[in-house]
Amino acid sequence: MLFLSFLDKMKALLGDEFDDFLKFYNSSGEHYRGLRVNTLKCSVEKLEKLLDFDLKSAPFCSESFYIPNEITSLGNNPLHHAGAFYIQEPSASSAVTMLDVQEGDYVLDLCAAPGGKSTQIAAKLNSKGFLWSNEIVKNRANILLSNIERMGIRNATVSNAYPEVLCDRLAGCFDKVLVDAPCSGEGMFRKDSTAESEWSDEHVKSCAERQLKILNSAKNALKDGGVMVYSTCTFSVEENEGVIGRFLEENPDFKLEDANVNFGRPTLEYARRIFPMDGGEGHFAARLKKSGELYKNSFTENSKKKIDSKIFDFYDSLFIGRPFGENIEVIGDKIIVLPQEYVSYEKLPVLRSGIILGQIVKNRIEPHHSAFMAAKADECVSKVDFDVNSAEIKAFLHGEEVAVDNNIKGYTAVCVNGITVGFGKCSNGRLKNKYPKGLRLL
Predict the structure, then answer these.
(1) CB contact at 8 A, 374 and 340
(2) Model confidence over 211-242: pLDDT tens digits?
(3) Whose CA is closest to 96, among 69, 78, 116, 76?
(4) Pick from 54, 169, 179, 260: CA 20 to 30 A from residue 134's CA?
(5) Whole-prediction pTM value?
(6) 57 — phi, psi (to 5°)?
């Protein structure tokens, strides 16, 4: 049951539309559900053909769709395991649309877990440029990393740092910065009872103070002439217009900029609000431009360490044309292929940069799941391909051995309708399963 203090605020905010707003909260409890196609691994047209239900286009992003409320267990779908799509409430894609990421950009997603917006940014980058995704809470940062890996992202660094520390260390490195700030979550009330139970006027005020602090840290990571988008999933004026107003007062070198979108409704002239009446659970986003002239440069720092030729032989045995580049570092027992463009992460708490090609075990190298998830099917030396509805792909995702052609030998990519989902080792007509135990279907 929504509480009077919140309802009074919404009535003051919405006026004549308040009754329409209430209808959504007094309905059967169904909320907007959606998915976003991951174009790094699958086209919209292909996914529409492979799914056994219809997708309805959402206005917030060309790859975002509504899905029927009766669809269940979508996370168990082999295409989800393969990273063909990300389950995401449609209006959550609005902030990245307003950020207008272009191939070759250097982008920081400062409050990135669980990874919906980061993976959307990465798809727009199309493996060019660089993405830095950060999450301050360690267990959430691990979930972020898992989603970055599942979606096949090659050109990202994932960190677990305090925003002020990270942005000071990375001052002036990024063309674009996204601050999807922790908030009171009023737009989550319909699908998350915890968000409603934690709400209070005091919580709203404390969120606003924290958001302004994060935004003032984020500005330091931005280049002159760069763009920053601030977003929340709350309706609160204090956390939205209030934070932006205070930030602009304190930072006269920033101005609100028109993001040239027509979803939701305008506020502060150029910012956008999305209410349930607008087709989404609730979002606010504002695009901020920093004064100065934007310059393009690369912060790439190629590894200067000599790499054993056996590592390149191993690389070539798995993948055609070294698709992740050759910027290789051996860190402990792991062989890392760093992004071809990246920002140095020395003395920062980084969980991973780039992809893990393999792991050194005694006197041999074993491939890593990360590399196969980032590879396209035609980049793999050996592969098997199963249909999304086949018994073979279900068995593979359960961790079972799978029958294959006797002629297939060695480490082999496993694909679902041409999309890589993992790997195994083939011998004598059997594929020994290498799908990580923590990801397997129960």
Answers:
(1) no
(2) 999 999 999 999 999 999 999 999 999 999 99
(3) 116
(4) 260
(5) 0.96
(6) -60, 140
